[in-house]
Amino acid sequence: MKLTFCTAFLSCLLVLTSMKAQESFSSFQELADQYLPQSYLHQNNQLLQRQAEKEKEWAIYELLAPSGGIFSSYTNNTRLPVSLIPSEILGGSAGTFEQVRFGQKYVTEVNAYAEIQLLNLSGWENLNYANTLLEQTKSNNKLSIKSRRENLATVYYNILELQEQLKALQKNKTAADTLYRITQNKYDEGLVNAQSLRKSQLNTLQIELSIGEVENAIQQWYLLLKTRCDLAPSANIQINQIVDTSALLTAVPIRENTLSQSNALLNVQAAESALRSSKLAFAPTLSFFANYLLQGNNNQANIFSDQATWINSDAIGLKLSIPIPSASTIKQKVRAEYDYQIAKNQASQATLQARQQTQQLQLDLDQAQLQYEYHQKQYQLFTSIYEKQLLNYRAGLLGLADTIDSFNEMTDSHRQLVAAAVSILKAQTNIEINNTIN
Q1: N or C terminus: which one in the chain shows less Cβ crowding within 10 Å?
Q2: Model confidence, pTM
Q3: What sign does the CA torsion over 88, 93, 99, 105 have?
């Protein structure tokens, strides 16, 4: 019993630990792998693919185009039609006619009819179009997932940048507090005036305001992140990624992404298939049919009367149908021709854009790494200058205004350094998305 209780306790502890771990993410990949497969986008993509698969099945069914059914009718001829026949047939005078009613008072019919197409060129082309549509749906799903990952990465790295800026501001707040204490001591000793003290205090308050603004911006971006992940606003998500500066300047291989190009080529295939289908709409069709008719004639208003005479007949044959072009089919053919030309132009454009996108990813990474190297050296320089000027200010060799200016230069440089570092991570993630979803 004790062992069972311990096992249950450890299991609950592991579950709680796992749930807690899922709320904290140390990389974008962890976040995307956790929430994107559960998103409505992923569910809709699965539904779209199933729909395309069903349409392919329907195209196979429409290829044979089976039709027919069983029809039944019961007729009461309340007044039979009148025919004129020569009277001499009935024993009358020649040259005269008698009015005679032919037909049956009550007629019951059961008719079974079936037809299946043997030659249906348009149906074969519709099946080919359905196959292309299925592949096109899969390609569109990949494009939507790639786009969602890229959009999610933008939100993720905006949060990461703001969090790194918050850390830098908190560090700068400590430095500003130190500067304020030095100024306060100088003011107490009568070495600086009240204006210098207020200026030092205002510098501290300005950093506190910046901290509050960044914290508010972080919450806003977290709310957008939950929206992109299809989560409730009350969901608990925390990004705890540590910016590893050692891997920021490494080269990342980039492969040309042909997803958009392949999708455009599928659009060309679909447009070409639609054009062929519109042309084949004028082609004849050959069908096999079978018909069975059971007719019951009766003079009494009773379907199952013993006096009813039942007659059956059946027939089989081939039917050739040659459609006449209509305004609708001609209009559809002309529209398909223009759609095909547009699709070919878009495919050529997609090929150029795929190459440009590869080059742009490389340029973005190179630019981010270049800025990071510059701001890294700049921050080291401004930090060294501020530390020396702080010592000079403490010794009374430098005024407060120059010291605060140096402090602001250092903090601005630190902010730019953080932004450059996160830009490299974002560029590397975009390259990874480009290389994997292809």
Answers
A1: N
A2: 0.77
A3: negative
